[in-house]
Amino acid sequence: MGTNDIVKFEALSPAEFFRRNREIAGFSNPTRAIYQTIRELVENSLDATETFKILPSIKIYIDYANQSRSWISIYVEDNGIGIPGDEIPNVFGRVFYSSKYRIKQHRGIFGLGAKMVVLYAQSTTNTPILVRSAPLRSNVIYEYQLMIDITKNEPVIMSQRTMENKYGWHGTAIRVVLEGDWSKAKRRVEEYLRRTAMVAPYAEFVLRGPDEDDAIKIPRVTTKMPDPPKEGLPHPKSVDVELIKQLIQKNPDLPLLEFLTENFDGVGETIAKTFIDFVGLQPDMPVGKLINDELINFVTKMREFNGWRRPRADWLSPIGEDILAEGVKFVLRPEVVFTVTRKPSSYMGNPFIVEAALAWGGAIEPSDNPIIYRFANKVPLIYDEGNDVIRKIVDEIDWTQYKVKFPAPLAIVVHICSTKIPYASAGKEAIAEVPEIESEVRNAIREVARKLRLYITRKEKEQELLMKYAIFSMYAEEVVNALSYVTKADIEELRSSMTTLIKEKLKIRRFEDLLNNSLSSEDENNSEAQDHEPSS
Ligand SMILES: Nc1ncnc2c1ncn2[C@@H]1O[C@H](COP(=O)(O)OP(=O)(O)OP(=O)(O)O)[C@@H](O)[C@H]1O
């Protein structure tokens, strides 16, 4: 009896795989499905706007489509660059179809999110997704109703039409009906938007829920936007055999020297020659002539070679210290916020930048541990904090070295941007442990923590001075009274000289300065100007 008689083999289409395993893309239950749907659509909207320097305006409307069956309708509209009409079916109907498989920072990476939304809707309510989109300067608006042929991983067009674009609209609007629990998902969705606004204060959001008074509006706080990322080439340290084979196939006759200078980030002629020498090959050898062993050796050497330039960070778009501070101030309303954007760094040839903000006091509730807000490529990570390397690092820090005593009103924001975020899963909720990233996160947090220590030290000194001033003034009044009685001098003059004397003694240049929380320059010099790294 042949094996085929007892074991049946079959292939699975990508769409079928994700229909069966939707948990790994974040669609694990009805509450999570709503959150994940909104998140995937909003992230596409943000990518379609800010990557092209358009200030994002995003509308999210939730309605009950059929309350007895827990069917929820979700509508998301943006003012982005839109989608070309002929691309719409594949964009929503073919798993692993994307414009973001490029070396450039995006929120999206997998080419999966929008399709998961369609798959989930289809699997729970059997209704198509409605898409309307108008690219920039388009005379028409395209409208499609789409489903997915799951076994073929292909779009099924249920209806299609074009409409006149009377008002010059551009952007994309999507309506989808799925089974979900809005009452439970609501808080998560609101929190997600609040956190998104923290790192994108240049965006505005309207969220309207199905019930009366169920609406929130997050206004645009600034019109400043980060510079969009440029599109890059792979760094030689990030390659593998398959990538090199694909590049060779495109042009097998290309000499090795040109192959290197044309296809990789930061490889000039001199570096390419040194490298080819290091491998022991000839610069004019056509790259297609590399035999298997040579090819494998070539790739291994590419990763070993230490003469490459560092990966360029032009493919990244960090938020920037000012914009991040504005977002954090607006959302968390702290007493004070410190931010830092670290210099670019890299892991395995992938450039990355870590940014951190520390918010202290004000509306932040004191808690026993720092409150952590994690972001990757401007996406808030809400679930799975326990598995995240950022939580681990924050917990390792000895906060007493920064004068923080818990419970304390302390929030830490960490943003990692990279052309390749090492996510721990397809749901994009936690960042895996990568030593280079860990060390940058640690440095970023320490940098803002040092600013906090300086701030707390100053505040303590100010408190001390205010106390002394109050006590001295109290006694001064008695002295002034007694002096004026004995000498018959003018009491007002005496009082004024006494106040001047006290201020001089306390080194307060202007009393108003003290009340405004700023000390004289002398005090500043005496404070922690020489700020040492605590030896943790
Ligand atoms: N609102 C939108 N405006 C413009 N283009 C969009 C919009 N939504 C989706 N797209 C296009 O559709 C493509 C596929 O989107 P999808 O959400 O499936 O994957 P992705 O964003 O590329 O990656 P990920 O799965 O990581 O989110 C995007 O790459 C983008 O080109």
Automatic annotation (TrEMBL):
Residues binding ATP are 44, 78, 99-100, 108-115, 428
Single GO biological process annotation from the record? DNA topological change
Q: Name one GO molecular function term.
A: ATP binding
Known Pfam families for this protein?
A: HATPase_c, Topo-VIb_trans
Q: Which SUPFAM superfamilies match?
A: ATPase domain of HSP90 chaperone/DNA topoisomerase II/histidine kinase, Ribosomal protein S5 domain 2-like, S13-like H2TH domain
**Keywords, A to Z?**
ATP-binding, DNA-binding, Isomerase, Nucleotide-binding, Topoisomerase
Every copy of the Histidine kinase/HSP90-like ATPase domain together lies at 29-148
- EC number per UniProt: 5.6.2.2
List the signal peptide residues: none
**What CDD domains does its record include?**
TopoIIB_Trans (cd00823)
- What does the record give as the reaction this protein catalyses? ATP-dependent breakage, passage and rejoining of double-stranded DNA
**InterPro entries, alphabetically?**
HATPase_C_sf, HATPase_dom, Ribosomal_Su5_D2-typ_SF, Ribosomal_uS13-like_H2TH, Ribsml_uS5_D2-typ_fold_subgr, TopoVI_B, TopoVI_B_transducer
Q: Member of which family?
A: Belongs to the TOP6B family.
Subunit info here reads:
Homodimer. Heterotetramer of two Top6A and two Top6B chains.
What is the role of the protein in this entry? Relaxes both positive and negative superturns and exhibits a strong decatenase activity.
State what protein this is by name. Type 2 DNA topoisomerase 6 subunit B
Encoded by which gene? top6B
